[in-house]
Amino acid sequence: MKLKQAFSFILNPNKRGEEVLELLAKQNTDQSFWANAKKQFKKNRIAVFSFKIIVFLIFIAIFSDFLANEKPIVANYQDKIYFPIFKSYAVDLGLSEWPSNFQNVEWKNLNYNWVVFPPIPYLPKNLDANNIHSVSPFAEQNIKSLLWRHWLGTDELGHDILAAMIHGTRIALLVGLVSMSIASIIGILLGAMAGYFGDERLKMSRGRLILNCLFFSLALFYGFGSRSYILAEALSVSFSSFFLEFFISLLLMGALLGIGNLLVIPLKWIPYFSKKVKIPVDIVVSRMIEIMLSIPTLFLIISIAAIAKPSLFLVMAIIGMTSWTGIARFIRAELLKVRSLEYIEAAHALGYSEARTLFRHAIPNALSPVLIAIAFGIASAILIESTLSFLSIGVPPETLTWGALLSAARQSPTAWWLAIFPGLAIFITVTIYNLVGEGLTDALDPRLKK
After folding, report:
1. Of 346, 354, 340, 342, nearest in space to 202 by CA
2. For residues 74 and 82, what is the distance between their CA atoms, to the nearest angstrom?
3. Is residue 60's pLDDT more than 90?
């Protein structure tokens, strides 16, 4: 088989070059690396159990609207079948509108032919006027039936704590995943460029360097700076509106960068602007990492969040833009080792561009330590968001998060359930992500491979 592959490559080198390059990469990184890592991870029962809990929390976050909601899942009203929760998704996306008889309606007071409510028929924002002043989960409650019971009690204003806990799971995981996605993009790009190019390898014409720096600043300003209010307003409406506006910002940013690179073309005829200069990427990125590490991250986040308008997106963005240093250091160290291996040299010999070699071959084979940093980073992001919510900084006051529930416990010292349940949720979530991170550390350690 190998002899057949060799003859095929000789007869058609362009077609088989990519396959030979991938074969060299697999041989260098050990073809069974991920299989061994998976086997090692499964041996750690605590890490596997923690991962199952994470999957359960993700399930709660995804289906929180069907677990705790004032709207029915399905209802027969006036001899018509309605799916109010699905309808609310369509309304949020701008694909539909509520009929006039369903606008500003109390869903629990409608006369249904039959109805199926979620297990917890409350939203975190709902106020139960009959159960205010922090009703205990074990106390007698003023309710119509067992369906309407507050299983984890209420707070001072009558919010259902279990509904807030369920929807708070979505916020906690969303903050962790989105903020670490931002941190991963920044950390992987900067760390990979620093490790792969070093201080001598990347060269760029003076004209391209000047125009890219200028238009990158303009792109950031017009793409995100001038549209920050629009992004914040879109986030307050729905996440779908926010992602649409965010996509528009990325398009604006890409268009301005494209214009900047097009303007480079006439400058190549001017000797001064066409001369290529070395870009000390490693020094610049390393100094950026040192500067970020020298600043107390939590105080920086608190300072920015206290000045700006409260927004969940702002909290996620700040956490992400201050948490990339560990990821950048890990992938930089890996790329310093990977860039001198055989399959990278083969990519250069086949005439592949530096960008293709970096993103197609170098980075994918250097991501194993990044997974560990991301696991620990998600736990840290959840803890930071809970801290900010506890201090009533950054997150809008109407958003009930786990940290906000803990903050409410300060106003009602006797309401032990306001401290126990959200505190336990934060503790468990942070702990299981740390345990998964430790499991990945052991599984991805090459010294444990057999």
Report:
1. 354
2. 6
3. yes
Amino acid, res. 140: E
Confidence check: pLDDT of 254 > 90:
no
Rg of the chain over Cα atoms, rounded to whole angstroms, equals: 27
The mean pLDDT value of the chain amounts to: 83
417 neighbors 137 (Cβ within 8 angstroms):
yes
- The predicted structure's pLDDT at residue 363: 85
Q: What's the 3-state SS for the chain?
A: CHHHHHHHHHHCHHHHHHHHHHHHHHHHHCCCHHHHHHHHHHHCHHHHHHHHHHHHHHHHHHCHHHHECCCCCEEEECCEEECHHHHHHHHHCCCCCCCHHHCCCCHHHCCCCEEECCCECCCCCCCCCCCCCCCCCCCCCCCCCHHHCCCCCECCCCCEHHHHHHHHHHHHHHHHHHHHHHHHHHHHHHHHHHHHHCCCCCEEEHHHHHHHHHHHHHHHHHHHHCCHHHHHHHHHHCHHHHHHHHHHHHHHHHHHHHHHHHCHHHHCCCHHHHCEEECCHHHHHHHHHHHHHHCCHHHHHHHHHHHCCCCHHHHHHHHHHCCCHHHHHHHHHHHHHHCCCHHHHHHHHCCCCHHHHHHHHHHHHHCHHHHHHHHHHHHHHHHHHHHHHHCCCCCCCCCCCHHHHHHHHHHCCCCCHHHHHHHHHHHHHHHHHHHHHHHHHHHCCHHHCC
Structure tokens given for 403: 């940290």
Instruction: Give the dihedral sign, CA 112/115/117/123.
Output: negative
Which range has the top average pLDDT, 24-33, 107-116, 197-206, 236-245? 107-116
